[in-house]
Amino acid sequence: MGPYPAHYDFAFAILSAPDQPLAQTVARLTENGVRLTRRDIERLGGRVVEGGLPVRSQQTSSESDTEIDTAVALVAETRQQVDGFAQIMRTMQDETRGFGRDLAQSAAAITQLAELDEITRITSTMIARIRDSEVRLAEATTEADTLRAKLVDALDSARRDVLTGLPNRRAFEEAFAARDLDAGPYCLAVCDIDRFKHVNDVHGHGVGDRVLTAIGQAMAAECAPHLVVRHGGEEFAVLLSGLNLSEAADLLDSVRSVVAAKRFRNRDTDTSLGVVTFSAGITAIHLAETAETAFSRADRLLYTAKAAGRDRVCAG
After folding, report:
1. pTM of the model
2. Burial class (CB in 10 A: 0-12, 13-18, 19+), 1
C-alpha cells in the first residue's frame, strides 16, 4: 500500500482502537505473519488506492498483492512501534511504581527518624530546661528562705531594742493594738530607773548600758509572760493582761523589790555601784482608750512615785 491518506486512515483506525472489532479482526487475519488481501481490506471497510486514485478494476493480481504487502508491512511496523512504546511505558510505570513505593517508604522512614530526632531534641531541650529550672528553683528557694529569714530578722530587729534585746516601743504599740479585749483586764506600767544619770556620770555610759540591760532583763524575767519593752532611754513599759489593777501593782512591786536587792559593780574597776532602783506608775487600761491616753496616765503616776521618794510603785 502506498503512502496515501486513505491507507493511513485505515491504519490509524486499527492502531488507535486496538480493542475495537476492526483491530481485533485485523489481528486475527494477520496472526502468524499472514498478510491482508485487498479483498480483506475492502471487506473491512477500507479502500485501496493507487496514485491517489482508487485502484482500477483491471489492476493485475500481482499489483494488488504488492499493495497489500505494503499495507500489511505498514500495519505490522506501526504495531511493533506501538507495542514497543507500550512496553517502554509499562516498564517505566513499573519502575516508577517501585521507585515511588521505595521512596514513600524511605520518606516515611526518614520522616520517622526526623521526627524521632526532633522529639529527642525537643525532649532533651525540655529535660535540660527542666533541670535548669529545678536548679534555678532550688536556688530561688534557697534565696527565698534566706530572704525570709532575713525578713524575719529584720522584722524582729524592727521590734527589738538593740542594747537590751527586749522588745521596743513599736512592739509595744502593736501588742497594745492587737490585745484581746475578751481575755480579761489589761494594765499598763511605766518604769524609770532612779538617778540613772548619776550612774552614767560617775561610771561612764558603758557601765550605764550594762546596768540598763541587767535591770531590763530582770524585769522581763520576773514579769513573764507579760510584755516588757524598753520604751526609750532608761524607761521601760509593761503590758500586763489578765490581772486587775491591784494584782498588777503587786506583781510590779515584787519586781521592784528584786531589782532593789541586786548589787551592781563596775567590772572594770570592781567598784560598787550601790543600790539601783526604779519607780513605776501603773494604771488599768480602759476598753476604748488609746495607747497614748493610757501611757500618759501611767506616766503621770510615775512622776508621782518619783516625787514621793522613788523606789516605789504608784497605781491609779
Report:
1. 0.55
2. buried
Per-domain residue ranges of the chain: 5-101, 169-315
Instruction: Identify whether 167 is preceded by a cis peptide bond (ω within 30 of 0).
Output: no
Between CA 145 and CA 177 the distance in angstroms is 30
Residue 122 has pLDDT above 70, yes or no: no
Cα separation, 230 vs 168, in Å, equals 5
- pLDDT beyond 70 at 98: no
- Domain boundaries 169-315, CATH class: alpha beta
Residues 271-290 pLDDT 10s:
888 899 999 999 999 988 99
- Catalytic residue (one of 50, 234, 247, 289): 234
What does the pLDDT read at residue 20?
A: 78
* Model pLDDT, residue 50: 58
- Catalytic annotation on 292? no
